[in-house]
Amino acid sequence: MPATTHRSTRRITPHTARYAEPLRYSIAPCPLGYLLLAASAKGICAVLMGDTPHAVQVELQQRFAEAVLQVDDAGLSEDVQQVVRQLNDPLRPAQLPLDIRGSAFQQQVWQALLHIPCGQTRTYSELAAPLGSHPRAVASACARNPLGVLVPCHRVIARNGALSGYRWGLQRKAALLKGEADAQAQ
DNA sequence: CTTCCAGCCTTTT
DNA sequence: AAAAGGCTGGAAG
């Protein structure tokens, strides 16, 4: 392919970069602390967890710096409850429209995460292989997953069996995996 | 078995 | 251009 006909280095617009896009969000307590769920016109674009309402709110602002954020507890309460219910009953996963934003590579990784069944895990290298990528790259994609729980990045562990890391704290990753393993064992 | 190290692919500054 | 990641396999202790 002659480089003269096509500029291959064209930059794709990064995920969250939209203008003053309106996003609705709601924060509620959950078994793992506080849970923040945010939605665009297309679907859920963020599920974050933290120790305080403030912490999750700040994370949302950082991730969607360009957005106009507006609380909508009433409008999102159903969705929030679905996620909370999934935490308590992992075999009944939330069924929500997702607005998954990320680079092409991140989309591939996150898509793969959606196919990991509840109660199972994969290693970073297992996910990297079919993408022709590297476990380290998969890890950084997992680390930036905006949809905690719904896009189960917590089901990815190190090859040696260690839990490795988790954006929202290893304690939560351990709890999620235990909950899913226990549910599966029923 | 544990620690250390050099490559590894993407994203972020 | 450089650094920093939720990694890994192999060498070394």
Task: Describe the fold and architecture.
It is a single chain. This protein is an alpha/beta fold and 186 residues long. It folds into 2 domains: 22-88, Double Stranded RNA Binding Domain (2-Layer Sandwich); 104-185, Arc Repressor Mutant, subunit A (Orthogonal Bundle), CATH 1.10.10.10. It is 38% helix and 17% strand. It is built from 6 helices and 6 strands. Strands 3-2-1-4 form a 4-stranded mixed β-sheet, with helices on both faces. The longest helix has 16 residues, at 73-88. Mean pLDDT is 92; it is low at 1-13. The protein binds a DNA duplex (13 and 13 nucleotides) through residues 14, 103, 105-106, 123-125, 128, 133-144, 153, 156-160, 163-167, 170, 173.
- Cα end-to-end separation: 56 Å
The count of helical stretches stands at 6
Give the proportion of residues in helices.
25-40%
Report the sheet with the most strands, covering strand number, pairing sense and barrel closure: 4 strands, mixed
Gyration radius over CA: 17 Å
How many distinct beta strands? 6
Structural class determined from secondary elements: alpha/beta
The overall pLDDT, averaged over residues, is: 92
Stretches with pLDDT under 50, minimum 5 residues? 1-13
The main sheet orders its strands as: 3-2-1-4
Estimated share of beta-strand residues: 15-25%
CATH topology name of the largest domain, in short, is: Arc Repressor Mutant, subunit A
